[in-house]
Structure formats: C-alpha cells, structure tokens
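Entry 14: structure prediction run for Battenin. Input pasted below.
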Amino acid sequence: NWIGFWLLGLCNNFAYVVMLSAAHDILKKQESQNDTASTSASLHVDFQVRNSSNSSIYDCNPVSTSAVLLADILPTLFIKLFAPFMIHKMPYGVRVLVCAGVAALSFLLVSFSSAVWMSLLGVIFASISSGLGELSFLSLTVFFSRKVLGGWGSGTGAAGLFGSLLYTGLIQGGLSPQLTLQIMLVVPTIVSRSFVRYLCTCANVQIFFLCMHLNCYLCSYFFIYRAQTVGPFIIFRLLQDQTTGPLSFKERIHVIRGLLMRFMIPLGIVYFAEYFINQGLMELLFFHNFYLSHAAQYRWYQTLYQLGVLISRSSLCCLKIRKLWVLSVLQVVNAVFLCFAVRYQFLPSAWVVFAIILYEGLLGGAAYVNTFHFISKEAEDRHREFAMAAASVGDSVGIALAGLAGFFVHSYFCSL
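Run finished. Output tokens:
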C-alpha cells in the first residue's frame, strides 16, 4: 500500500511539475515563433506586457512564467473548491482513469502546440489531472494505515525532483522540449497500473465497478466477501455509506471552518510565498557571468527546489512539525529577501540562489506533509475523508494568488 501511494503521488504530480519546469521553454518557443510569424500576433495580445525585453535590465520573456503557473493552478483550485461536495459520488477507480487520460492529453497538447493559447490549454489539462488526483488520493489515505500518507507525500516530492530533473537532463542532453514531453507520456499509464497492482487486483476492480454501477446491496455484500485482497478502503466505504450516510452540507461547512486557521491559512501563506518566488522572481534571478544560460539556470532552480521538497516530504517518519505558522513566517522572509535581491541585484552568484531555493523547497514540502498528517490524526473519523480533500484547497489558493502577484512583479521589473 505504501508503494502504491508513493507511485500515485509520483505520477499525479508529474505533469504539473514538468509544465512548471518547461514554463520558460514553452514561452521562449512561442516568442521565437512570433518573431517569424507576425500573423500570429493577435493570438498573444492578451499576454503581452508593454515593455519589450530589449529595453529592460532583465532578460525577460514577453509573457511571465506566471501565465503558465495560473494555467497550472486555476483549474486545480476550481476542482478543489467544489469537488469535495460532490466527488464522493464518483468511484475512485473512475477518477484514476480520468486523471491518467487527461494527463496524457496535456503532454500531447503542449508538445504539438503552435501558439501560447494551445500550450496553456495543455497546461490546464495537466492541472485538472493533478487537482482531481490530489483530493481523491488524499481522501483515499484515510481508509489505510496513516503511514501511507508518508508514501503519498514522498511520492509527490519525488515527482517534483524526478520530473524537473528528467526534463532538465533530457534538454541538456540535446533533446527538444517537444520530444521530451512526448517521451513522458509513459507516466500517466503508471497511475492506473499502480492503483490496480498495489491497492487492488484486476478482478476485484471489476467487481467493484459492477457494485457501484448497480448500487446493489447484494452485490456489495458479495464484493466484501470476495475481495479479500482489495484493501480496506472500498469495503469501509461501502459499509460507511450504508450506516452513516454522506456528510450534510452543514457538516461540511463546519469541518472547513475548523480547518481554516489551524491548517488551510498557514499552508496557503507558505505556498503563496513559495510560488511568488518560483514564478514571479526566479525567472529574473539571472546571472550573466555564469557558465549556465538563462534557461538552464531557470531549470536548475526548479530542480533544486524540487529536491528540497522531496527531502522534506519524505521526512515525516523522522520529524513532525505541529506549529505550521513558523514555516509560513520563514517562507515569507525568503520571498521578501529574494524580491530585494532581484530589485537591487546584490547577490554575487547563482550558487547563493541555489542554496536559498533548496531551503525554500524544504520549507514548502514540510508544510504540506505535516498539514495533512495532523489533519489525518486529529479529525474525527466521520469527517476525515472530507477534511483531507477540503484542506488541499489551501495550497491552491496560495499558488493562485502568487500567480496573480507574479504578473505585476514581472511587469514592474521588466519595465525598469
């Protein structure tokens, strides 16, 4: 089960991470196409900033990487806001198939895109897959030993590192961004495979779909007696629905109120500061006298950030942090410091930024995994499944606000 959730975390966040790592390349590709095809200019008018990169002291893309971030997070935010109130009606197996199919479509769209809007549409599909998968698999953990949450957290952290490192490595090796994204199509297939292989058997999945489709108590009892290897989450879910029924709307609102101050707001602040750095400032932290190009520096920033996330999301077995507000304060300090560093350019080398970005990832990953660990531990049994799904909206709100702030920051600095 731990391995299964690790693989689900890895594959679920993979497309999301790759799209952020590819943000700079996606926009550079469209910029170069615009330079040779003036007829496509009307497609990009909504994304252009007033000042061209040639007149700025920074090496700016005409479109901030925040555009990619917003396309990558707004669909996820929408899903997390509304899905917890209705997603319980969809079987987990169906959600897995939807996540895998939509993720594959995202890679295809971006790799074959010929305009910014098409690239961003592909990023949107990656966001839908990641958002639906995250709230579904977090809810799923409550039907297993609490230890599988460590597997999920470690897997999502591994997705960050492996996704950004694989993308960066293949690009550095000479492959085009388009071919690199097509190679990564193998990842969505692992989602459904890991779900079936490690959490249930093929025969039991078929019986489960039959039960859910017919909504038949006789089939449910047959399934319970037959599915000895399926894992407790489905059995418990069937029994729960028959005995207690789903939570009412009033109960769900009550659960959300209890999560806000203790978990959702601190997590949102951490992720706001984190992604304000990643998509609002990171592109502008460019050192001309460094042996790596601007695009390469950006990719390695993303890779080191994901390394920090992997380390801290895998640390739950060794270290637990209950005071999440401490992580919020430290991450905000990071964001303020790097904002001044971009404005006054006092950092001597990219190596200093590498260290700060790694530390930033450590804070972000720790905030994520500890938030859901303590929700799982402290929430009432009846509320736990919904609480895990609802709390995931905290990081998405922070990321979305960071994307909006990134637009203004990018426009300001690139106008200097």
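Notes: Confidence is low (pLDDT under 50) at residues 37-54, 201-243. Will compare against the previous run tomorrow.
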